[in-house]
């Protein structure tokens, strides 16, 4: 190291590295790759918000002594749970709004995933239709090399 870190030393290091024959450069991402990366970020945000909504509903129910299994079963059983237990009307309205919000987020996640996958013809040709919904973004083509194109029925790696 030649001295303390500063812009001049950084620039000198970049120039020195660029003239080395073994230096490999990263190709800039295409517009399609950047778009798909943005879709990943949006989808991940929707999934995070959907999970937070389920946890919020679960927490509210626990505060009122209603214990359900953790996970999506809270959403599946919510209408039955609201009719079985006596809860304040205002709370029932809030829980119903959260349930509606969850359904909206779930629909957006599924729609986002399907539209992204259908636009990727290579992937659609390789995957069975039942595999369209549970794919995490890490399994989408942006993160695959050509060697990772899957045959139908092969299980997908999870993040």
TrEMBL record:
Pfam families hit by this protein: DEDD_Tnp_IS110
Residues in Transposase IS110-like N-terminal domain copies: 3-63
PANTHER family the UniProt entry points to: PUTATIVE TRANSPOSASE FOR IS117-RELATED (PTHR33055:SF3), TRANSPOSASE FOR INSERTION SEQUENCE ELEMENT IS1111A (PTHR33055)
Molecular function (Gene Ontology), one example: transposase activity
GO biological process terms held by the UniProt record: DNA transposition
InterPro entries found in the cross-reference section: Transp_IS110-like_N, Transpos_IS110
Transmembrane segments: none
Protein's name according to its UniProt entry: Transposase IS110-like N-terminal domain-containing protein
């Amino acid at each position: 190291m030649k001295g303390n870190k500063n812009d001049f030393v950084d620039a000198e290091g970049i120039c020195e590295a660029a003239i080395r024959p073994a230096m490999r450069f990263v190709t800039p991402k295409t517009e399609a790759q950047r778009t798909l990366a943005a879709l990943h970020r949006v989808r991940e945000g929707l999934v995070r918000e959907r999970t937070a909504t389920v946890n919020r509903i679960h927490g509210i129910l626990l505060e009122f002594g209603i214990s359900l299994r953790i996970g999506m079963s809270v959403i599946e059983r919510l209408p039955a749970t609201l009719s079985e237990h006596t809860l304040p009307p205002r709370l029932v309205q809030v829980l119903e709004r959260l349930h509606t919000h969850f359904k909206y987020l779930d629909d957006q996640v599924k729609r986002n995933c399907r539209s992204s996958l259908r636009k990727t013809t290579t992937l659609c040709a390789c995957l069975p239709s039942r595999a369209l919904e549970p794919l995490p973004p890490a399994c989408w083509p942006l993160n695959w090399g050509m060697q990772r194109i899957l045959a139908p029925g092969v299980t997908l790696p999870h993040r």
